[in-house]
Specification:
about 25% strand, about 15% helix, alpha+beta, Sulfite Oxidase, Chain A, domain 2, Immunoglobulin-like, disordered N terminus, globular, about 450 residues
Length: about 450
């Protein structure tokens, strides 16, 4: 009736407590997940703090007690006029490997490098993939066309060629004694990718004789393009639309991306819109000036694709602290761009002796592999290290091994300003008597 106040039904103390818990949980989840929030995420309107339980229940939120997040920025690597003096240089978001379990990286924590370009807002119903060039039948696929074709799902890691480099953007942070695994190795992640083999699409287009390369191009502002040998394209490359059981995230290339297993991350073109079959590489900016592997004689190797074997202990690792002497499981990840990890060894005594670790779970080709080893810490200072062997017989090198290959002194890796690609040296962690763990790469 007009003029009468409406009385709300009385809530029990239990119901009030439940509502307060849900409200705090949602607000805490939004705050803690801000770094990894996708472009389309919703935020609460000013003055409206009530949780939208329908949305919360429709697409779940992690516990408010879980705070693992990526670090870094999407800042420009090469701004006009150069970087201001004293400005930290960064070029992506790093995965907190120290907080992950198993061998699959959660999609919201997968590392991101997009060369300062924010993800384009692409309507999958409007998006097209064109295959043309030296083909008999130029063809255009919609996303739905691709989903009608036979699909495969495979776990593969993706890694920046400068991951763990001691120089270049962010290099100082990676060699600092307080560095965590996120700083030293955070530009690699592993997902289960679902999509269509590129070989199937190229077969439908009819590759012409004399073709030797493909040029893959993205849809972002910079229209990143990359030359890839046709032999690789016909081998194990995927045109992926799925990641870890759902659609690829916007920052990972939604709605389509290339997955080029085991090769430098720059080859995995995101927001894929065009593939041109050609008889020579494109030699674009990312191939001729930004990504060559520089040599000491001033020359450079333009194409260096496959990533060598690498492993890293994630627990205990930099920035962590052991509460007391006693039993711990040493846990970490190993991977190789050339195949499958066959063996991981761990040293707990500064490299004097090595023991074989256990491969935990399946070991897939060109995928992260989780390993573990029992260890009883006696409370004394020591250094922990891991090294791996892949099924091609290649062993992860020490930094001294890399110095011999490069023909340099060990101090070169500390002092150079050159971005060192494919730096897969063994990573040491120093355990101090107080239980604190530090980066010991140059110890």
């Amino acid at each position: 009736m007009l003029g009468l106040e409406r009385k709300e039904p009385r809530m029990s103390a239990r119901e009030k407590g439940r509502r307060q818990f849900l409200k705090k949980a949602v607000l805490a989840g939004l705050s803690a997940g801000a770094i990894g929030t996708s472009a389309g995420a919703q935020t609460a309107e000013p003055g409206n703090t009530a949780p939208d339980l329908k949305k919360l229940h429709a697409y779940g939120e992690r516990s408010r007690f879980e705070t693992a997040a990526r670090s870094g920025t999407m800042g420009d690597m090469y701004p006009p006029g150069g970087m201001p003096a004293g400005t930290p240089r960064d070029f992506g978001l790093r995965t907190p490997l120290q907080d992950t379990v198993g061998f699959i990286t959660p999609s919201p924590l997968h590392y991101v490098i997009s060369h300062a370009h924010e993800p384009p807002d692409i309507d999958p119903h409007e998006h097209r993939l064109m295959i043309h060039g030296m083909v008999d039948r130029p063809v255009i696929f919609t996303v739905e066309d691709l989903k009608r074709l036979p699909s495969v799902s495979r776990p593969h890691f993706i890694e920046c060629n400068a991951n763990s480099s001691t120089a270049g953007p962010g290099g100082a942070a990676r060699v600092a004694v307080e560095a965590t695994v996120r700083e030293t190795h955070g530009f690699t992640s592993c997902s289960i990718w679902t999509g269509v083999p590129l070989s199937l699409l190229l077969d439908r287009a009819g590759v012409q004789k004399g073709s030797t390369w493909i040029i893959a191009e993205g849809s972002e502002e910079g229209k990143h393009a990359k030359s890839i040998p046709l032999e690789k394209a016909l081998d194990d490359v995927l045109v992926a639309y799925g990641q870890n059981g759902e659609a690829i995230r916007p920052e990972q290339g939604y709605p389509l991306r290339l997955v080029v297993p085991g090769w430098e991350g720059i080859n995995n073109v995101k927001w894929l819109r065009r593939i041109k079959v050609v008889d020579q590489p494109y030699m674009g900016m990312m191939e001729s000036t930004k990504y060559p592997s520089l040599r000491l004689d001033g020359k450079a190797r333009w194409f260096q694709f496959e990533l060598g074997p690498r492993s890293v202990i994630t627990r205990p690792s930099g920035g962590q602290k052991l509460p007391a002497p006693g039993f711990y499981e040493i846990s970490g990840l190993a991977w190789s761009g050339r195949g499958t990890i066959r063996k991981v060894e761990v040293s707990t005594d500064r490299g004097r002796t090595w023991k074989e670790a256990q491969i935990q779970g399946p070991a897939h080709s060109k995928s992260h592999t989780r390993f573990g080893m029992d260890w009883t810490w006696d409370g004394e200072e020591t250094i922990l290290q891991a090294r791996c062997l892949d099924d091609q017989g290649e062993v992860q090198p020490t930094m001294a091994d890399l110095a011999k290959i490069w023909g340099v002194q060990l101090d070169f890796f500390r002092s150079t300003s050159i971005v060192i690609g494919h730096f897969n040296a063994i990573q040491p962690w120093k355990v101090n008597r107080d239980g604190s763990v530090q980066n010991a790469l140059f110890a």
